[in-house]
Amino acid sequence: MAARFIDRLFPLNTRRRLFVRAIKRLAANPSLIFRLFSRASWNKFIYFNGVLEPAEIEKRLDRKFAEYSRAEGSGPGAAAGREGAEYLDYIFNVNSGKGADYRDISALVLPDTGIRQIAFYLPQYHPIPENDAWWGRGFTEWSNVARGVPQFAGHYQPRVPGELGFYDLRVPEIRRRQVELAKQYGIYGFCFHYYWFGGKTLLDMPLEKFTADSSIDFPFCINWANENWNRTWDGLENDVLIRQKHSPQDDIDFITRISKYLAHRNYIKIGSRPLLSVYRPALLPDAKATAKRWRDWCRANGIGEIYIAATHAFEHINPGSIGFDAAIEFAPNTFPLKDITSEVKPVNPGYSGQVFDYRNAVRCAMDYKKPAYKKFRGICPGWDNDARKPGRGITLVNSSPAAYGEWMETLCAFTDANFENDEKLIFINSWNEWAEGAYLEPDKKSGYAYLEAGAKAPGKAKGMMIRKEGGEYKQTAKNGLTRKNYTVVMVHVYYPSMWDEIRRCLEKFEDGFDLYVSVPESVEFDYERVFGVFKDACVYRHENRGRDMAPFIRILSCVEGLGYRYGLKLHTKKSAHRKDGHKWRRELYYSLAGSPEAEKKAKEMFDTDGKTGMLVPEGHILPSTFYWGKNAAAVKRLAQRAGYSLKDEVFNFAAGSMFWFRPDAFRPLTDMKILNCEFENEEGQVDGTLAHALERFLGLMMTKTGYDILPISGKTGIKTNTAYQFADASPGPHEKSDVPEE
């Protein structure tokens, strides 16, 4: 009774409940008040209070309380005593050898798009007296990296460098090789983190040597990391090691000190204006006055006009309000990501860190809303600072070169569409933040794969379609697509030899249709085979991943909202693993598109019954109670992601993945924002991939949203085929108890 009363008074997922629970926790642990409510923590709380649901903020606060409440000395080492051999075995076995996405060094032909990728650069790879005193003699960033151990199953730790090794930036050959690699893989320049504390600089040796080396011809700029240094890594945020000393005179001293860099021949400029970044302008007493002092000094001392940018690492400040020119997105900071810590299996019983999904960050980047002010986009190849804060770090799982490439493609398309000339900038966090798991430099697991994915991304033009206009092939962005007919036909061509069979079917259509043809990048295909017959068609080139399903989802998301009433999905199905593959394909083709009558019948059925979602050839509707294959776990994950229960559900699905469909009925599929990188690498699989799971999931989606899957023959009653000649039956999860769980 009391619990129900409390729930009614303080409902779940409300800010009322959030604040009451926070106050209750603080009352029980008053010693945590000063640790939790530092200026930085309060600013983060205010920001997330505006972008996250109260339940998600509550979860994050609980973890922060747990982190600060842990006894001194508990950590990964404790697991050895409690978990014993199992934990040690995991450490010995994890990260052995190269990963599946490993890439050797390669020479690439870099596209000339005008987009400049700038990577933040950490200089803390050489010892300095101050770090010796604070952290122990010989301390560098590698000292943190070496502390990394796996905290949960699948946790990629420790991070082991590849070609460059555990380098020392005092060695000139290392700095030069970094530049060579960056140039080879399309990085335009480095943005050095610069540490200035009221007249004292730290870690400036690499920048000094970099700019003094006449053999290095590589653009660079500066990001003033204007925070205090404290013992955050040890959980002691209020133990300050060295403070900032902001004042009007400090502003002048700072700009005077860096003026030699601003005037350097390789300094990055926007137009003729040197670019200066400030990490946290909110910490300046009067950022607007500081900006004015800098500008006045530069004009008076031969530098000229400067371009000042503010990173959005913490506070999201409109740069114009403080006299700055632009903002910089600093990924993944402040991204409203969903906490998935409960989904991992810790191998360290004392683990109190947080886990998020890198792919969620990619989706956030795709959903980005352009602000009213100028903001350069930002990206990170990964994030995992557990090496700096063992057992208490924040980790983004599921990062991969493919996911990074997909994110970079998104940013390149946005930047190309929204910026001009020298302002086509993308900032990468970072080149070498090894202890934060945010680096492009080659490592033992992935090699040069992240560098390669980022280098290829500008030329991929994510979301672009190829059209023929005035005798030339031109790219059209998503916002340039229009509807000319009410029917959209989507054809995936992996086997070009089969295109003509589909073409002959489509030529029989009596009504007009808009045609989209997807072709993997690895497949040679003469566009004239499409445009020579269907002059208004669009061709979509893409990575060979996800079979016909991945490009179908991409095209569907591009044409969503154009008002199509009818859709037809076809693909060049070969089924080389079956002797009767040609028979299977032809039954599907000719039932769906082999005659004008089939086209008319499909439209008539959609128009007559608003609950008709999919139309499938007679005999190719299969029940989920059979033909489950190896897809049970993946379908369950998709169902959970879409918010559907999947316990004793029986549903039908379209075998062969070809069908007529009602476009509006497929909105839940595009709402799931399934990424290309979620699909497996193509290895000739005949079952058990995400594409196979989606084939079945579409049937569940129809059932859950109240739509029907019907035979295109129009026969009354839904007859499913439990003796399907083109597949071997296997029971569904409700028929057998040992189906793999998630």
Number of helices: 24
Stretches where pLDDT falls below 50 for ≥5 residues?
Answer: 70-84, 733-742
Which architecture of the largest domain does the CATH hierarchy give at level 2? Alpha-Beta Barrel
Q: Structural class per helix/strand content?
A: alpha/beta
Gap from first CA to last CA: 35 Å
Total number of β-strand segments? 27
Note down, in words, how this protein is organized.
This protein has 742 residues and is α/β, with parallel strands linked by helices. Helices cover 34% and strands 17% of the residues. It folds into three domains: 2-69, no CATH class; 114-460, TIM Barrel, CATH 3.20.20; 465-711, Spore Coat Polysaccharide Biosynthesis Protein SpsA, Chain A (Alpha-Beta Complex), CATH 3.90.550. It has 24 helices and 27 strands. Helix 17 (499-506) links the parallel strand 19 and strand 20 (514-520). The protein starts with a helix and ends in a 31-residue tail after the last strand.
Question: What is this entry, summarized?
Answer:
This protein is of the alpha/beta class. The two termini are 35 Å apart.
Topology, please?
Layout: H1 2-9, H2 15-28, H3 33-36, H4 39-51, H5 54-69, H6 78-83, H7 85-93, E1 116-121, H8 129-135, H9 141-145, H10 172-184, E2 187-197, E3 200-202, H11 205-212, E4 220-224, E5 229-231, E6 236-242, H12 248-262, E7 269-270, E8 273-278, H13 287-300, E9 307-311, E10 326-328, E11 354-357, H14 358-366, E12 375-379, E13 394-397, H15 401-418, E14 425-428, E15 432-433, E16 438-439, H16 449-460, E17 465-469, E18 472-476, E19 487-492, H17 499-506, E20 514-520, H18 528-531, E21 538-542, H19 549-559, E22 566-571, H20 581-593, H21 596-608, E23 612-616, E24 621-623, H22 632-642, E25 652-654, E26 659-661, H23 667-671, H24 690-704, E27 708-711
Parallel strand pairs: 1-2, 1-14, 2-4, 4-8, 8-9, 9-10, 10-12, 11-13, 12-14, 19-20, 19-22, 20-21, 23-27
Antiparallel strand pairs: 2-3, 5-6, 7-8, 15-16, 17-18, 22-26, 23-26, 24-25
